[in-house]
Amino acid sequence: MAQLTAEELAAIRDQVSKKVAASADPVTELVVTPIALIQDDRSAERIRPDALRLSEHWVKRATTSIRRASSLTIDLASTRLDVIEGSSLRPTFASSWTRFLEDSTRKRPVLLTVEGPFVEAVTARLLGATDEKPGRPRAPSEVGRALFARIGQLIAASFRAVALETADIELVEVEGREPADDLRRYFLEQDSLIAVTIETTQPAEGRWRLITRPETLSSRPHGSGHIARPSRRLLEELLEPVRVEVSVELGRARLAIRELKDLVPGALFELDTSVESPLPIRCGNVIKAYGKPVLVSGAVSVEICNLMPAQGETQHENVES
To answer: Under CATH, which architecture does the 246-263+271-307 domain have?
Structure first.
């Protein structure tokens, strides 16, 4: 809360005096006293560029993660920032997917919501629906919100990563029914909150919202010049859905050009490995394990024999049975 400035008081006195002068009713004395102003509108304007920039990065990361994990394509229409009353969130809590996050340093909560037919449409696609015709719009059911949790987790993890990278805000998920109920009451009791709203059009209409107090997204001082790095756990959460190419090397040989020219169907040449030699398993041209070829239901497969140790770890024992 902030007091009126001297200029604002003078402007109010001037306007009221003009009204009094034009009125037929006599007024013996004009008294103007300072009143408290809610400064959230001003705060929202100050943080608007940073908040919209953060949400842009959030959307890009989240949609990419969702597409890699589920092959879903999500189209977004527009983004805006509003100041809302906490009491307006009652319908949101009743019929939307929600996730509470908290700034681990300043203990300022963040509410992420996904609302509208978008939730049911995504759930239907995850269950195998292929009908491209939109059905009758409806709010997500309790079952739909529960099934949406897999995609919601990607949305929340993407926001945590972006908040850390772009705003140096480290967020943790709030777990447990009682802490969530406390935060639900906290948000409902707030006189004003900022809400960044992202409208969706595909696979159905809906909206994502980031809701918090303005000061949560305000810039922090950077006296030390330290650049925060995401935690290993957070990186693992983001990378888990990513698909990577794995190759198994049967062996190598060096042939003269004339030998290559003489190759015909049925010709044989010797590799530098024996039948019992373990085969290197590569990921990104890095050997991650060794295995042996086996047949499973007629398909050539590889049974892992040894895993290469990660940096700082000891090598796994042979797991061949």
So the answer is: Roll (2.30)
